[in-house]
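Hi R.,

Here's the chain you asked about this morning:
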Amino acid sequence: MIKNMLRGAAALSLILAPLALPSTAAAAPASPSSAEVLNLADAALQIPLADESRTGYTRDKFRHWNTGLDPADGCSTRKEVILAEAVEAPQVASGCQLTGGSWLSKYDNVVVTDAARLDVDHFVSAPATIRA
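And the predicted structure, written out as tokens:
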């Protein structure tokens, strides 16, 4: 789920980039022959960066985790994400109690072996992190 969100955020940023970037040909109408074609990495680097702003963000405004895809199995969306991201799958007991398993942090290469220590949160990747 997190991987798909990152892909979606990257695609959205590329779609919106032409709207946010200043046009050098603002006075003249654009023509297909004047369009600049860039590969993904170069296009992502064209997106302006800014410091993180948490103005208006309050974690309390987000509801608790929902019941997930199958309400009968007891696995919330949080636990479904944790299961999907496992490097070594944990044992899943009644009520979706997780034991064992391991996860690798893509940010610092730390291996986590306790699912309770994992956070699954709302975030959008910065475009500059996209590399070819």
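The CA atoms of residues 57 and 95 lie 31 Å apart.

Let me know if you need anything else.
M.
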